[in-house]
Write a structure and sequence with these properties.
It is a single chain. The chain is of the alpha+beta class. The protein has three domains: about 40-165, no CATH class; about 180-250; about 280-340. The protein is built from eight helices and eleven strands. It has helices at about 5-40, 65-75, 160-175, 180-195, 210-220, 225-275, 300-310, 315-320, and strands at about 40, 45, 50-60, 90-100, 115-125, 125-140, 145-160, 280-285, 290-295, 325-330, 335-340. The strands form three sheets. It has a five-stranded antiparallel sheet with strand order 3-4-5-6-7. Strands 8-9-10-11 form a four-stranded mixed sheet, covered by helices on one side. Strands 1-2 form a two-stranded antiparallel sheet. Helix 5 (about 210-220) packs antiparallel against helix 6 (about 225-275). The longest helix has about 50 residues, at about 225-275. The radius of gyration is 28 Å and the shape is flat.
């Protein structure tokens, strides 16, 4: 058998190391690509200022049981399909991104000064799980004060869901980039044509898909055909955006006034209903836009309140009237039970 000399062995070793380094470098580039995409992503949000905690580990992720029970008892009128994740997930990781957000999609605003914790779990540069945690001080179903208030897991999305969202966004971006300047111009006109900003009555005006129109027009460069027309349309977009802002403020103000009337009317009806059942309940409104309803009675106790919300449509009616929080209290006993209506 022919033996290898020292030079040949060294040469082969050098080639092996170079190949290994190339594979590793390619993998690192791929990892960086996925992390770059999720650094600020439409569905998952902005992680640019997130804490990045490095360290290997395993986690048994599980949505908090009382939260699942709450969703069963008080289902959302029009739930966001994207908020239906996994109930549990086993995940191995070597890095976790942790971001704090005041709100996340339909989960509403933070309570008690505690933001949501939004996390991305990573392993070898691949996203393994996306989670949302919310701070709780009491059980949302039984209203029992928790022995250990803290963050509880309310949403889990696994890697297949993350890849699905990445693929969906990549397909949209690919289709957008494949358009010619003429096609971009056509799509911008189509987006603007869906609106009618002309009516004198501000409440009857519509503006079209301004964000889509702007994106298509910005894709047309100075050297592209149709650039001058695109600049004129961009001025149209900017004018509509300013008018839309005024319109939105007027609509929101009118909507707030209407919902406030509904809440005040409901309080009057609720007061009569309690009195008709022989219950003396003091009802007050508070918070922004009077969106918090406080009910106090010497008859209230935890079992009584549980039966009230579990066996009646009270919470559903309060939500429909635009209430964001309901507080049941018995000041004589120095007890209160808070119900978050934005779950």
């Amino acid at each position: 058998m022919r033996t290898l000399d020292k030079f040949t062995v060294s040469f082969l070793l050098l080639i092996s190391l170079s190949l290994a380094a190339g594979v590793s470098h390619g993998k690192n580039q791929e990892q960086t690509g996925e992390q770059d995409k999720l650094l600020n992503f439409p569905f998952f949000g902005d992680f640019q200022k997130a804490r990045k905690v490095k360290g290997r580990g395993r986690a048994s992720l599980k949505v908090w049981e009382p939260y699942l029970e709450y969703l069963q008892k008080f289902p959302q009128p029009s739930p966001d399909p994207a908020l239906k994740g996994s109930d549990r997930l086993e995940v191995a990781y070597d890095e976790v991104w942790v971001a704090e957000r005041d709100s996340f999609r339909q989960f509403g605003k933070k309570k008690g000064g505690k933001p949501y914790l939004i996390k991305l779990y990573w392993r070898d540069g691949d996203a393994q799980a996306f989670t949302v945690e919310k701070f709780y001080s009491q059980d949302p179903v039984t209203f029992r004060t928790l022995a250990e208030p803290g963050y509880r897991l309310i949403l889990i999305h696994d890697r297949p869901f993350i890849l699905q969202e990445l693929a969906r966004e990549a397909a949209k971006e690919k289709a957008f980039n494949a358009l010619t300047p003429t096609a971009h111009l056509r799509e911008a006109k189509k987006a603007l044509a869906e609106g009618n900003p002309e009516p004198k009555d501000l409440m009857k005006r519509t503006y079209g898909r301004l964000a889509d129109a702007r994106k298509h027009l910005e894709a047309i460069t100075r050297d592209d055909p149709g650039y001058d027309e695109a600049r004129k349309l961009m001025k149209e977009v900017e004018g509509r955006e300013k008018d839309q802002k005024k319109h939105r403020e007027a609509v929101e103000q009118a909507a707030r006034a209407e919902m406030l009337k509904r809440r005040e009317k409901m309080v009057a009806e609720l007061d009569r209903d309690f009195l008709g059942k022989g219950l003396d309940v003091k009802i007050e409104l508070g918070g922004p836009d009077k969106s918090t309803i406080r009910m106090d009675s010497v008859l209230f106790s935890r079992p009584w309140v549980y039966l009230l919300v579990d066996k009646t449509d009270l919470l559903r009616d309060l939500k429909n009237a635009g209430f964001k929080e309901a507080v049941f209290s018995n000041k004589a006993l120095k007890y209160s039970w808070d119900v978050d209506l934005e779950e």
